[in-house]
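Question:
Write out your own:
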Amino acid sequence: MVWALFAGIWIFLTNVVIGVSLALTIIGIPFALQHLKLGMVAFAPFGKRIRG
């Protein structure tokens, strides 16, 4: 809970903003999707697995 309040929310918001800005171009769409996935992992990193 402490992680989500102090660090997770800010990292999540940063990844969402970067993801939305990358989604404005056709080439950036795959990178935008990865930033959105990383944003979810940053918000709650414990108990999550990253699959490639």
